[in-house]
């Protein structure tokens, strides 16, 4: 989960990380995924709803 998906993707792209899915927009959030060194996908999610914050 991240606060700003576009900023995270920009940072990861600058480090050579491959985005494996286009960003999709849903009522409740924005989703995509990046490729891990192992070849597995790591989903990334930016919620568009209120979330609990830690103290």
Structural class: alpha+beta
Series of H and E elements: HEEE
Overall average residue pLDDT:
93
Shape: globular
In the sheet with the most strands, the strands line up as 1-2-3
Annotation, overall tally of beta strands: 3
**Estimated helix fraction:** 10-25%
The tally of domains stands at 1
What's the gyration radius in Å? 12 Å
Number of helices: 1
Low-confidence stretches: none
Strand content is 35-45%
Largest sheet: 3 strands, antiparallel
The CA-CA distance between the termini, in Å, is 17 Å
Domain VOC: 1-47
Organism: Lentzea rhizosphaerae
Protein name: VOC family protein
InterPro entries: Glyas_Bleomycin-R_OHBP_Dase, VOC_core
Overview of the molecule:
With 55 residues, the protein is of the alpha+beta class. The chain has one domain (5-47). 18% of the residues lie in helices and 40% in strands. A three-stranded antiparallel sheet has the order 1-2-3, with helices on one face. The longest helix has 10 residues, at 5-14. It is globular, with a radius of gyration of 12 Å. It starts with a helix and ends in an 8-residue tail after the last strand. This is VOC family protein.
């Amino acid at each position: 989960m991240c606060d700003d998906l576009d900023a995270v993707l920009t940072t990861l792209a600058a480090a050579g990380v491959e985005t494996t899915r286009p960003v999709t927009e849903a009522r409740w959030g924005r989703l995509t995924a990046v490729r891990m060194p192992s070849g597995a996908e790591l989903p990334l999610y930016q919620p568009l709803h209120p979330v609990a914050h830690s103290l």
